[in-house]
Design goal:
Length: 71
């Protein structure tokens, strides 16, 4: 594929994102960044994106449980 194809589709995704709801806007902008990456361009915003990982689950301390009333 040539560069004009990726440029056109990246711009089309941005145009659609301008009119979309927040969830769809985010996905379309990510798609546009992927097209830009194929062109060798990286937007400043994509360099600052970091995936947030969920916090690890912790096991409550044993003293938080009472043996009274449990079968």
């Amino acid at each position: 594929m040539d560069g004009e194809f990726y440029r056109t589709f990246a711009q089309r995704a941005r145009d659609l994102a301008a009119k979309a709801d927040p969830f769809t806007r985010k996905r379309l902008l990510v798609l546009a960044e992927k097209y830009d990456a194929k062109l060798g361009k990286a937007s400043p915003a994509s360099r600052n994106l970091q995936r947030t990982l969920p916090l690890p689950r912790t096991v409550p301390a044993g003293s938080a449980f009472s043996d009274a009333g449990e079968a």
